[in-house]
Design a protein that fits this description.
The protein is 65% helix and 12% strand. It has a 3-stranded antiparallel beta sheet with strand order 1-3-2. α1 crosses α5. It has 5 helices and 3 strands, in the order ααβααββα. It is α+β, with helices and mostly antiparallel strands.
Length: 113
Amino acid sequence: MMQSAVADDVFYALSNSTRRKVLEHLSSGPATVSELAAPFDMKLPSFVQHLSVLERSRLVKSTKRGRVRTYEITPERFKVAEHWLTERRKTWEARLDRFDRYVKHLKERESTR
């Protein structure tokens, strides 16, 4: 999958507060579907759709043992979002540095008049 498509999947998955809360829960360790669904006031099929989005984006993976499905975070895909954000931060830092130099240049020019 192309890098931008991967980033699209990751940011789409992260765009929903329920999915972000699931990821927060999973950051403390693997959890079953029922453990993950317990804090949410929604029907299980709707909740499972959120888990499917997270799994398709590969932010999580699941294993099934008997009738119990357990989810856990797969940290590799978070690096996609981190890389994208890092690149945007570098761009804005460079722009702000250029702006700062320009303002300093204007101040120096004004003080020499």
